[in-house]
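One-letter codes give the sequence; each number marks local geometry. A record appears below:


***
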Amino acid sequence: MTLQLKPLHPLFAAEASGIDLTQAPTPEQRKAINAAMNQYAVLVWRNQPLSQAQQAAFALAFGPLDIGLKRIFKRPERMDDERLIDISNLNADGRIADRGTTKALSGFANQLWHSDSSFQDPRAAYSMLHAVAIPDAGGNTEFADLRAAYDALPQRTRDEIQDLSAEHFALHTRLLLGDEAYTEDQKKTMPPVSWPLVHTHPGSGRKVLFVGVHATHIDGWPIAEGRMFLADLLEHATQREFVYAHRWQVGDLVMWDNRCTLHRGRRYDLTQRRDMRRATVMDVPEALLDAV
């Protein structure tokens, strides 16, 4: 089967079809998908009835799987395949989680602009989110193109950020939302990492404005000044013209490149089920050799 693409936004994002994701991609299909990701950064696949094992197998074609914050949150798992990450409002027993639980707080954190696993090294390359159940309204996912955001920066700002880096911390969003119940051992499980504010996306060769809510401060700057500058850069990067909003359908699998996009979930009725399952692969260059 041949990959087909239909653009969804003037700058990035496309609907992809022509490949059955329930089967592991062939080398030719993987190469075509990588090329499409380099161009569009977000691919939307409709009507993909994936089992958990099939979703994991598809993701593994693009690199080793990343379990992210599971290394800190050692709580009961709802997933049969523990390589997947539960992006739902459901408890381990499958019931809707209470609004005050740590599970619900994770959902609120996902409503902030971020790139997956920017708080670790290696960070994430591709994420693949599969919709199993969706609410009647709301719960969209928005994506921002950080390549277009860099291109639109004034030259003065480009010069200012060229050699700057920011520290990213795994628990920053949780602390920001008022959850401070973490031990020192938990905080040390995933120590902060620093990433340049500007890097070159390896697949497209375009420069990226690498910001997001996991960034706590700019290295070498006073905390307050750095956070205000990061807030300004994030506001710039998430202007409407750089954003594609995805309205979910059951069976959708949306695949995005965390190295050049941000994303966030949108508000929805928390009394309704939203069952989403994510597979994420690490940014390991040898796993993406045919991506360039």
Q: What stands out?
A: The chain has a mean pLDDT of 92. The domain at 4-283 is CATH 3.60.130.10 (Double-stranded beta-helix). The chain has one domain: 4-283.
